[in-house]
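Anyone up for a design puzzle?
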């Protein structure tokens, strides 16, 4: 009886732990984007963007093409030189994933929110927010 209980408990725990796990594709994107933020490399980040992306950059929010978003990020990194970036929280629901991190720059700290969505078996960033951190 006890072995059945232990086995059932292990099955339930496995289902719970794997059902909300962060997708491997999102992990790869997040690793690459984290390097981009640490290095201030806008092209490293935007290569994972959807062709159009919703971007909020210091209270200026709009839909941008991938090329426009790259120019805006490049300008941002020229003004705010990154010193570090760390993801503090990440999650997933259905075909969407998100990550929230802190970007430390020479001129202040920023909260970065990244929202990804899988479409046609490819995970892409659909929304990026960079806000002053308090």
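Challenge accepted. My sequence:
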């Amino acid at each position: 009886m006890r072995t059945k209980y232990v086995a059932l408990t292990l099955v339930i725990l496995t289902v719970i732990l794997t059902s909300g796990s962060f997708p491997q594709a999102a992990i790869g994107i997040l690793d690459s984007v984290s390097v981009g933020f640490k290095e201030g490399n806008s092209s490293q980040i935007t290569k994972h963007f959807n062709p159009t992306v919703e971007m909020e950059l210091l209270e200026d929010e709009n839909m941008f093409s991938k090329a426009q978003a790259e120019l805006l990020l490049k300008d941002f990194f020229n003004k705010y030189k990154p010193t570090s970036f760390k993801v503090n929280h990440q999650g997933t629901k259905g075909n969407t994933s998100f990550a929230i991190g802190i970007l430390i720059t020479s001129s202040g700290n920023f909260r970065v929110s990244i929202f990804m969505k899988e479409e046609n078996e490819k995970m892409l960033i659909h929304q990026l927010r960079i806000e002053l951190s308090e």
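A detail worth pointing out: The chain has one domain: 20-132.
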